[in-house]
UniProtKB/TrEMBL annotation:
Organism of provenance: Reticulomyxa filosa
Residues annotated as domain Nuclear pore localisation protein NPL4 C-terminal: 216-467
Annotated InterPro entries: Npl4, NPL4_C, Npl4_Ub-like_dom, Ubiquitin-like_domsf
Pfam families attached to this UniProt entry: NPL4, UN_NPL4
Domain of life: Eukaryota
UniProt protein name: Nuclear pore localisation protein NPL4 C-terminal domain-containing protein
Amino acid sequence: MSKESFVIRVESSRGMFRAEFPSNQATFGELQQKIQDKFGIAPDLQVLSLTRPSQPQFVKSNSKDTLAKIGLQHGQVLYLILATNQSEAVSTKQKEEKEAETDKDKPKAKSVTLKTSEWVNDPKHRVEDTGPKHVPFHEWIEDRQKKYANQPWNIDPPTFDYKPIKFENHVEFSKLPPNAVIKRQEYRHCDVIRFMDDKPIHKFKSEWEKSAEIQRAAYLIGRYELEENALDEKRKGKKLLYANVYALYIPPQKGEVYGVKLLKDPHEGLVDKVIAACGMERVGWTITTLDRSGKKYHGDIFMSGQEIFTAARLQEKYKNPNTGYSRFITLITRYGQKEAQGFQISDQGVAMIRQGLISPDEDRGFMKVNAAPPKVYLPAVINENKQIPQGETFLPDALLVNVLATLAKTIKPMFQHIHFPPNGTLEHLSKHLAYHKDKPKHLAFSDFSLLVFLPQVMDLELVCEVAQTVSKKEKLKPELEKRLDDALQRCLP
């Protein structure tokens, strides 16, 4: 883009693009033509707004009016409002263009998704997994135990110590950390993320798609379980580590067009106690995104730099304290697509972020090598056999570990309802009880969002007893039901 060019950014539920002109004397008709070329929507069917679609301020101009006359500024965002049929047509056009580009250029590796993994589960159909091959961690260790039977020091996975070194009077070369040579991880700590109940994730996705210009996130609540490998007949008898998901928890957050920021959760401790009472834990998180492909990214952005950074922090937070490894998963949910993509950040990637080597770049598809502070040594970062200078960027795909994503063949919900809102109040509690007044308590309270709300208004120990009973689908004992009724009378007006 030349310095003299004039750029208008056009944003829609199907992504954003830059319309570039020689100057602001270009006409509105020329802008409409660029939109038609990009999205396939004729000028007379284009609905443009100066403000977000929630409070639109429509652009009403003649096709011969200049952009300067309309009052548009260099870099300004216009919002293209798409009807349902238009959105579907744009999606089809983008898919066809992407397939054509893939045929022309060497494709990037793709992850196995909810859609493809369902085919994998069908023995009549086989789907080729063209993505990087990752071995279950326990198999990887077993193979190394055989290979290095006489060299036990080589069995454990590599450790990554990139801790910065301050230069003092004298630093021995042997004490400097090694360079960070980025390599794809051969193993994965969790193999499959499987939804045992499809209602929570479908509700989360459908509510987001009503206003998809703002991204959302939710924690995946479930259990890690080692089970027989039912996805690959060639590996029959082997086991996979599943993250079985039964519920979603929506934490405080700030959603933006290109991402979401998790905010401090004042109830985090209470929520985790209730989750544990149900015999579960936070096994991952899901984040939404619009389309964000581009040639400079060599196709899709699987995870943005900021998503990788946050995911690495979450993996660090929810790692196993005994092993130091994390099984925490990131699930990418895309607009208008049934399938989702599962990832982890490699152990090396987590270490590089933890020790300050890399950080998200302003360009969301890249990570940046951090500049060393004065009198501090940071190891060099090597990616694809090239050193990335400090302050420069690189595509972070090699830091990702693919995780299979699927729905359970047989749905096994833990909770009966998904009615209670994630930001519930006493008023919501009162309405919920009135609606379910004729049901036994273990059914009326069989709503995960309700259970994690209750510690805000009554005794935590009592709530945990109720949650434990409800999650097992057992009736409340008379003594427990009486204590619950007494607590409800105290907290409800």
